[in-house]
Protein: Phosphoribosyl 1,2-cyclic phosphodiesterase
Amino acid sequence: MSRFSATIWGARGSIAAPAGPNREFGSDTSCVEVTCGKRTIILDAGTGIVGCGRKLYEAHVNDLDILLTHCHFDHIMGLPFVIPLYKDHVTARIFAGHLDAGTSCRKMVERFMCPPYFPVTPKQFAAKIDYRNFSPPETLDLGDGIAVRTVKLNHPNGAVGYRIDYAGRSLCYVTDTEHVPGQPDKGILDLIEDADVMIYDTTYTDETFERHVGFGHSTWQEGVRLSEAAGIRQLVLFHHDVLHTDETLEALEREAQARFAGAIAARTGLTIEVGADNIPV
Ligand SMILES: [Zn+2]
Ligand SMILES: [Zn+2]
Structure:
């Protein structure tokens, strides 16, 4: 059976967290490495992509697809530090689908990696990079039997949710989205229907959500409601609040598991085999 797995390299939202109280769940911001057979797809380029890039370089992985949900700093901050992008034998495609007309994925990266904010510009990337723009709900055909469906998320400045279908299994990555209480997001429900795994924005809880309306994030309880409605088997709590230390996240994970047996909180280093019976820790 073809390998289909997702490894968490960064699960933190908004900004990297201090190391001390966050040893279990990790400090780094959004980055998930997805393996589909011989192909490597990276979801978001938060600070977690730095370690991911180093590992891929050492493993001689020379072909990458980087799918960005959006370009808030916590999702792109690691991009200038991805070692394979500085190697001329590497080919990479970087996708963005949240930008307004008049800008593009390439322009967005050029504006971000630019003096005086940063001394290195994308011109110094030696890899062959193809910057790709798309508009949700477009489906991206990555080849080798990998189809990626997309949907617009409810987030300030826009964001995109992804569903990767491969070898009869599916993984959804839905982060940086705000729900409307009592009104499940139809676009998300369509996207995630019957998926094996959903990684979901659980920055807040239903109890703290009211104070954060308009911030663009969701709760683990909404993740459970969506999972139950759509028949998701494994829900991965993701985009952890920077103030949620190990102790808090362990408690939230236990609460979520009591409500939905297939819930697990993302921690750096966790690998999920998509479609396998992953046992919550
Ligand atoms: Zn974020
Ligand atoms: Zn964001």
Notes: The CA atoms of residues 81 and 113 lie 11 Å apart.
